[in-house]
Amino acid sequence: xxxxxxxxxxxxxxxxxxxxxxxxxxxxxxxxxxxxxxxxxxxxxxxxxxxxxxxxxxxxxxxxxxxxxxxxxxxxxxxxxxxxxxxxxxxxxxxxxxxxxxxxxxxxxxxxxxxxxxxxxxxxxxxxxxxxxxxxxxxxxxxxxxxxxxxxxxxxxxxxxxxxxxxxxxxxxxxxxxxxxxxxxxxxxxxxxxxxxxxxxxxxxxxxxxxxxxxxxxxxxxxxxxxxxxxxxxxxxxxxxxxxxxxxxxxxxxxxxxxxxxxxxxxxxxxxxxxxxxxxxxxxxxxxxxxxxxxxxxxxxxxxxxxxxxxxxxxxxxxxxxxxxxxxxxxxxxxxxxxxxxxxxxxxxxxxxxxxxxxxxxxxxxxxxxxxxxxxxxxxxxxxxxxxxxxxxxxxxxxxxxxxxxxxxxxxxxxxxxxxxxxxxx
Length: 426
Prior knowledge:
There is one protein chain. 39% of the residues lie in helices and 13% in strands. Strand 7, helix 6 and strand 8 form a beta-alpha-beta unit. It starts with a strand and ends with a helix. The chain is α/β, with parallel strands linked by helices. The longest helix has 15 residues, at 39-53. The chain is built from 15 helices and 13 strands.
């Protein structure tokens, strides 16, 4: 495994405590060591592990991250911090496909991870590296999902955790998780970008380990969303993979995973990435429209709290991923996000608002003719339906796709129940 700065080329040891380059503060890239096999032989290795350890064995053997350890972080089992995580379902619902306007749309639901979001895949690797390098504390900035995941995995590892979240701009469900897992939680008077600046300064000056997606080991864990997705598709890639885009950690990880999978012969074609931002937090989409000639920053505002980020930290990696996959970056309105969420929820799947941006983005690109109705698409649902519980009761009835479903207060008698049943049938 080689760890090197993408900006200055500085090389670091594999037990480095640095999340960014100690010389120039640039982003670090990890090049995995050569795996023991390639092509079909490597597919068979991963498939055998999935088959043998899906429901038995140790947490490490059950993990949908550490199944791919040769492509993530080769290390001894004693160092690994795992719940386990991964093994998330690939779901298909006709009503969602019909809504998006495509023949077949599948949803990989990362909300089925232990703390309810995809962040657990990156955090198992980040905390494993924190343990390997002897970190005495770990910190992150967060809009909610990162903080709850880091708090959980830090508690598991026995490493003190410090999280910084923007005051008044985090879901109570996510904040409650973070507090419950024991992290010291700081409510910062500012937005996510202020929190990230502060936590980076703390990492540099106070020596705490940085747990945000700037950390290259987070990216290595998040790559396994793609490896597992490809495995679930029988190593036959879809035409498109759509995902919500905030800090661009997943966009970066997905591009890296697809490059490695193709180079190792795991797949023969490269899916196109569709990174979807909320219109009120769309600096990456604005830049894409200019062929990335300029880097934009915005003061982010969107109902999709998980992607409410105005200055994405993994910008350069994200650009590389979009260019490598001939991808597209799009922005969709909060109304379109909540409309897609309503359809996903009503299908019995459910997701947090940011997750629904992926389906809303697919619908928008189909309408524009960028995605063809006969192409295969997998969307990533990044978080559980209970991550933003306060967003559940939607009162806007202007869209035929919104399904407001408020609780109904009744008297304690059978006739009241009967009236409700009759009104539901009409």
